[in-house]
Amino acid sequence: MLTPDQVKQMIADIAPCEHIEVEGDGHHFFATIVSSRFQGKARLARHRMIKDGLAEKLASNELHALSIQTAATPEEWAAKGN
Question: Which architecture, in CATH terms, is 9-76?
Answer without folding.
Answer: 2-Layer Sandwich (3.30)
